[in-house]
From TrEMBL:
UniProt xrefs under SUPFAM superfamilies: FAD-linked oxidoreductase (SSF51730)
Catalyzed reaction equations: L-proline + a quinone = (S)-1-pyrroline-5-carboxylate + a quinol + H(+)
Transmembrane parts of this sequence: 15-32
Biological-process GO terms, alphabetical: L-proline catabolic process to L-glutamate
Residues covered by the Proline dehydrogenase domain: 82-337
Enzyme Commission identifier(s): 1.5.5.2
Listed name of the protein: proline dehydrogenase
Source taxonomy: Bacteria, Bacillati, Chloroflexota, Caldilineae, Caldilineales
Superkingdom of source: Bacteria
Cofactor: how and how many bound: Binds 1 FAD per subunit.
Length: 347
């Protein structure tokens, strides 16, 4: 967070960030009107860009906009937000932001921060679990480094009766992610670990089959990474259709009899209604699944679903490494870009 007073000098330093944000917003809005797919690709490319991250994060007003979607930079701020959401009848998934670390020291530092988060969840009594990314724990450095760090998190979480979910990242990491998941769950007996399925990947239908067989704890998302058409659906309509198919499989009688618990993670009302219809048609109780929505987006819808008796969990990210997460949220639904632009000028 940039807390430096605005002076002539600081305004000069912020000029590149302002120029980048205004250029991206104007260009993005034009392309949103004429080519949403192109805009999504642009935003996903920028989410991985080091120079873009430096420009945006050095510009104070950018944080003031992004903070609508991020619960702060410290664990104390995140726990406070979790408590406020719990008071409204909403459960929480907490995510200490960070990914693709390149040094073992960074991976171990992330592990220590998440251990602290688990301690604070236990001490505060908030209704929350933790989501982690293997690239944050060092999987791109060495698979065993991520394995050891995740094992430490699961051990601490289990001692508190808490769960940890492994977020899914780009397709190149899917096999490694599942290998580590299976090793810890089946090889080492950690029953407090869950995974994520991305509907836009072609392979997900096969992955769902074996996850059902083992009674997994699964979050279903559409997918937010830039992927080639050889591995993922390019058209929204195809991704939506896959999302509904996978949700129905994960809510099937077979899945529920094996202990599968599904988290339907979407803000898309068409997807929410499709799940509601399927559940009603098959007499599936509301406590057999949950809806998950992102912090700061469609707050009224979150509370509305909870008031209707559905279990609703809010995905709450926090930390200083917010830029990639923020850009992917814009890419997931490019209409959010207009929301970003209007709030940017208010900031």
């Amino acid at each position: 967070m940039n807390k430096t007073p605005v002076t002539a000098t600081s305004r000069t330093r912020q000029t590149p960030g302002l120029f980048f944000l205004l250029s991206a917003a104007i260009t993005g809005y034009v392309f949103y009107r004429y080519s949403e797919g192109w805009l999504r690709s642009l935003l996903l490319s920028l989410s991985r860009s080091t120079w873009a991250r430096r420009m945006v994060t050095s510009f104070g007003p950018a944080w003031r906009v992004a903070s609508r979607f991020i619960a702060g930079e410290s664990v104390e701020e995140a726990i406070a937000v979790a408590g406020q959401l719990n008071a409204k009848g909403l459960k929480v998934a907490l995510d200490y932001l960070g990914e693709s670390v390149t040094q073992a020291e960074e991976a171990n530092a992330a592990r220590d921060q998440i251990l602290l988060l688990l301690d604070r969840i236990h001490e505060s009594g908030v209704d929350a679990y933790v989501s982690v990314k293997l690239s944050q724990l060092g999987v791109k450095i060495a698979e065993n480094l991520a394995l050891e760090n995740l094992r430490a998190l699961l051990t601490r979480a289990r001692s508190y009766g808490l769960r940890v979910r492994i977020d899914m990242e780009e397709s190149a990491l899917v096999d490694t992610t599942f290998d580590i998941y299976r090793r810890l769950r089946h090889g080492e007996g950690f029953d407090n670990v869950g995974v994520v399925i991305q509907a836009y990947l072609y392979r997900s239908e096969e992955d769902v089959r074996w996850l059902i067989e083992e009674g997994a704890w699964v979050r279903l998302v559409k997918g937010a990474y830039k992927e080639p058409p050889t591995v993922a659906y390019a058209r929204k309509a195809d991704t939506d259709a896959a999302f509904i198919r996978l949700a129905e499989q994960l809510l099937s009688e077979q899945a529920r009899s094996r202990g599968v618990h599904l988290a339907v993670a979407t803000h898309d009302d068409a997807m929410i209604r499709a799940v509601q219809r399927y559940a009603k048609m098959h007499h599936i109780p509301q406590d057999a699944y949950e809806f998950q929505l992102l912090y700061g987006i469609r707050r009224e819808r979150q509370e509305q679903l909870a008031s209707q008796g559905y279990c609703v969990r809010i995905y709450v990210p926090y930390g200083t490494a917010w830029y990639p997460y923020f850009m992917r949220r814009l890419a997931e639904r490019p209409a959010n870009l207009w929301f970003f632009v209007t709030n940017f000028f208010r900031a």
